[in-house]
């Protein structure tokens, strides 16, 4: 090998000199480093047949320059290139939504259970513990004091004490029912709320069970007694009544009763006079014409009870009786009426006797056009308003008890309505139609529009003197189909005038 070739394996001792740098000026010439394993390093083996350019050893990278006189060092192996990562968007979006949902649930449950958590963590040490003294003071004054005032005060007003131990809230529960008793009744029994002579356990009295058995009739729910013997009875209340208007009723049994009884109503020692009705009762019998077919409550009149500590009593007495005038003793009813009805009674013209019957005691055909309404201007607080009837409306107030014969002036209490409808009134005596004193069988009345609540005079009727005995007075009101407007149906007032001695 020549000298040039021998120098290929022995590089210059001063690799930084310009003698071996074709570029001069001491700048190193960057030579591409062969791939690892392709050529031996630091010398290149060449064949003799390839006299190429002399081999110039590569300059090691910065920081790898070997000191002079040292053997050359092998270069660091090349770092493998990192694979290019692709983004999984579905996975990223799923994780984002899951994280947001978890955060929302954490906040929501934290807010939801914050009070409970806070209560469970009251033991947690703090620098400013909650004072114990103020909390019981606020709870005691803010909650307990108003409760006592708000609950106790209204009780006497909203739920007053019953008028009597024998108070019945619904008059419909009584047999027979009392339809015109919207505020309940007091029921006094002859065997528990009365003093009677002779005593009921005397052989002079016969009980209803024995009477029903002798007649072959069904047993009565209530116990009553009948006698031919002379005697007296006095019903009494168990406590004083509140001031107000009351109507009293006596039972007229269908069997074993007849004749006439006069009752005395007293408040303590003070006798009371009825504002309407009569305390004289003519008892009906199964032989009466028309025949009495069922037990009937007979009114003893309307009475005003003034404030008093005395109790109400009702007394009657009788002489010996025969088989046509048997005395029967059953129950006595006390029915509260509205105090506002007193003003209506005072507005009704006076006569020897006044009778008032509410529409609740009657029957209405065509109820689809007769609507019941509550009103402070109505008798006992309610009335029927007939509105634009498409069919005939008929109201009947049957005669259920005999009244004395004579002349009756008829009045209708009419609460305020739009009016405009004409009603036709007629009167019956013992179910027989009689003519009015004007000579017509019916009397027509047209209700004025917006008429203030008042009594409206209908007309007058006079009974005959047939046998000169009391008669059952009934009333009928008819409103034609197709009428336009309104018509009120409420209480009916009968003002009685007896026949004069010359008649």
Helices, strands, pairings?
Blueprint: H1 3-6, H2 89-112, H3 114-120, H4 134-152, H5 155-158, E1 167-168, E2 185-188, E3 194-197, E4 206-207, H6 208-215, E5 225-227, E6 231-236, E7 244-252, E8 259-262, E9 264-267, E10 270-271, E11 280-283, E12 296-305, E13 312-318, E14 327-329, E15 332-337, H7 341-347, E16 353-357, E17 363-365, E18 370-374, E19 382-387, E20 393-397, E21 402-403, E22 406-414, E23 422-429, E24 432-434, E25 443-446, E26 454-462, E27 471-479, E28 486-489, E29 492-498
Antiparallel strand pairs: 1-2, 2-15, 3-6, 4-5, 5-14, 6-13, 7-12, 7-15, 8-11, 9-10, 9-13, 16-29, 17-20, 18-19, 19-28, 20-27, 21-27, 22-26, 22-29, 23-24, 23-25, 23-27
Structure report:
The chain has 503 residues and is of the alpha+beta class. It folds into three domains: 1-63, no CATH class; 167-337, Galactose-binding domain-like (Jelly Rolls, Sandwich); 345-498, Jelly Rolls (Sandwich). 15% of the residues lie in helices and 30% in strands. The chain has helices at 3-6, 89-112, 114-120, 134-152, 155-158, 208-215, 341-347; strands at 167-168, 185-188, 194-197, 206-207, 225-227, 231-236, 244-252, 259-262, 264-267, 270-271, 280-283, 296-305, 312-318, 327-329, 332-337, 353-357, 363-365, 370-374, 382-387, 393-397, 402-403, 406-414, 422-429, 432-434, 443-446, 454-462, 471-479, 486-489, 492-498. Strands 17, 20, 21, 23, 24, 25 and 27 form a seven-stranded antiparallel beta sheet that branches. A hairpin with a 2-residue loop joins β23 and β24 (432-434).
